[in-house]
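Running this now, will post back.
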Amino acid sequence: MNIFPERVVDDKGEAKIEGGLTLRDYFAAHALAGIVTRDDIESVYSAAQKAYRLADIMLETRNQ
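Update: finished.
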């Protein structure tokens, strides 16, 4: 499932929906927003890794 997909028209003039963020990316972006507000983050790289770990946990919890 993608969040914020885009409506595009192909060469034949047919409209279709494509792109957007995965739900995992969406969750990670929101987690990252909270993580970077803390003063004790080691690096941007580690903050991004943590955000995706949290996103994976959110997806697991959502699927239970």
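The chain has a mean pLDDT of 89. More later if anyone needs it.
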